[in-house]
Amino acid sequence: MTSPRTTDPDWWRQAVVYQIYPRSFADANGDGVGDLPGIISRVPYLVALGIDAVWLSPFYPSALADGGYDVDDYRNVDPRLGTLDDFDQLIEALHAEGIKLIVDIVPNHTSNRHEWFVEALEAAKGEPARERYIFRDGLDGAPDQPPSDWESVFGGSAWAKTDDGQWYLHMFAAEQPDLNWQHPEVRADFLETLKFWSDRGVDGFRVDVAHALVKDLSEPFPSKASLPRQSESNGKHPLWDQEGVHEIYRGWRNLLNTYDPPKSAVAEAFVPAARRARYASADGLGQAFNFDLLQADFEYEKFRKVIEENLALAEENGSSSTWVFSNHDVVRHATRYGLPKNPKGGWQDGKDWLLSNGTEPTVDVALGLRRARAATMLMLALPGSAYLYQGEELGLQEVGELPAANLQDPAYFRSKGAEKGRDGCRVPIPWTVDGLSFGFGPGGSHLLQPKWFGAYSVQAQESDQESTLSLYRKALAVRRSLRTGNSLTWVDATDWVLHFTRDGGWQCITNFGAAPVELPDAAVVLSSGPLEGDKLPSDTTAWLI
Q: Which residue from 49, 165, 348, 476 has the least number of CB within 10 angstroms?
């Protein structure tokens, strides 16, 4: 297996990583579902974009009860997406262009079709096969009452009943039974999985729900009402962020460090910022997702606070921060930024807008795109690694009008429609201005693409120097030539202009205010939108040197 041209062990610290949701990127065989050969065919596009690495969302065999995060077999490829040979060809194609590959690993739960869980259901109560999962009798021995009133993240009970009257824990969908990470076979098997993919040439791992593996299941179980009162800031919550999880990741890190260069890893850990440092430590996974900027509205005070806090945390633990605005789980930021403030308080996550099928309130598409372009350029100027989600380089809007009959997300079904779910950001991206699936493949697409998609396609933007695609390509090229060091220096101006410098004289200025502001006496390298003479307009970012 070939390796990328660079062997820098710290390549991940300031990498630009492009997330591919494989079922919605490119479809080579025309069955409406994206696949590995489709991704291989688009490697030249990734090269032209200028990324450093691809993060590949789950591609394993799966019934798609949760978009592939219900894994049947951790060491294989879903036959609808390709074969292990296709996977090897994908690594070969990416590495030939100096692009790294990070793959998703889902350790909190398997699918209910995994051989271990099939064996557990076939076994009698109390037999060893059930010990790899979390089986319990009903409350007070009553078979019709779950062991506790806990709810799953997707809604409904966190317990599912088996035919023999026992219950198993699933913090997500019922098709995703939680593993028992106290079991030595579970720990050993995941080390084998990490080794399997590392030996094939994978450069790193994105660890799904990294904070959930270890649970305190001492009985009697606390009630659902008391769970929010359990501290989530000191590792004492029974279900999330238990201290014992770090012993697991120390073992992973020991394995990953046996490779040259060491394999990278990044934790998806929804924990308070102060707790995130443990996951990103040098003897842990090495890096952790920072979702604080994603969950901040486009406002000066919020952006500056998030940036300051997370750079300080990264310096404290010797890692580098991560920055992200969109991914496979959230409404695209070009849409979020075009919505008014959340009347309920908190950040504008777009969920109420989704429930209206994308009709209320009205999205200011132009404003949302202008702010998204400005925010992305600001992010790309920050020290640390930047994570981009497929389609954001096209300025793609969220698809809010998906009909109920086409929805796939278990969050919609388990919440009985109280949540629309995440399908709107997973609609296959458009490559051409027209065609049955806008160039996604020779057939249709598994999630319906709206008529307006063609205007956002790669073909529509390819030759337009002012398009969002062109902006991303220019920004990534300039970033590669300018990035240096792991720090920045603030330049205080006003309470609505975010201005900082990086080593070598690189300046980044974002205007969050309503009126244009004077630019300093320096050469403008790139701007997210047109300038007004020597002034930076509202909702615009400029790089100067």
A: 165
Distances in Å between the Cα of 378 and the Cα atoms of 325, 527, 542 are 11, 10, 8
Pairwise CA distance, residues 385 & 476, whole Å = 12
Per annotation, catalytic residue among 70, 86, 268, 409: 268
What is the rounded distance in angstroms from the CA atom of residue 39 to the CA atom of residue 86?
10
Q: CA 502 to CA 218: how far, in whole Å?
A: 50
Cβ(412)–Cβ(433) below 8 Å = no
Would residue 208 show up in a list of annotated catalytic residues for this protein? yes
3-state secondary structure 38-49: HHHHCHHHHHHH
| Per-residue pLDDT tens digits for 415-449 | 899 999 999 999 999 999 999 999 999 999 999 99
For residues 21 and 427, give the distance between their C-alpha atoms in angstroms, rounded to a whole number. Answer: 10
- Candidates 208, 292, 398, 409; catalytic one: 208
Torsion from C-alpha of 187, 188, 190, 195, nearest 10 degrees: 140
Q: Are 321 and 383 in contact (CB under 8 A)?
A: yes
Q: How far apart are CA 438 and CA 180, in angstroms?
A: 44
Q: Which helix (H) or strand (E) holds 251?
A: helix 245-256
By residue count, the chain amounts to 545
Beta bridge partners of 322: 385
Q: pLDDT tens across 194-215, in order?
A: 999 999 999 999 999 999 999 9
The predicted-structure confidence for 467-517, as pLDDT tens digits, reads as follows 999 999 999 999 999 988 888 999 987 889 999 999 988 999 999 999 999
Q: Please report, in angstroms and rounded to a whole number, the separation of the first and last CA atoms in the chain.
A: 41
Give the model confidence (pLDDT) of 88-139 as tens digits.
Answer: 999 999 999 999 999 999 999 999 999 999 999 999 999 999 999 999 999 9
Query: Do 256 and 262 touch, CB atoms closer than 8 A?
Result: yes
Per-residue confidence band for 1, with pLDDT thresholds at 50, 70 and 90:
very low
Neighbours of 51 (CB within 10 A): 23
Q: Give the separation between CA 358 and CA 450, rounded to whole angstroms.
A: 12
Does residue 335 contact residue 398 with C-beta atoms inside 8 Å?
A: yes
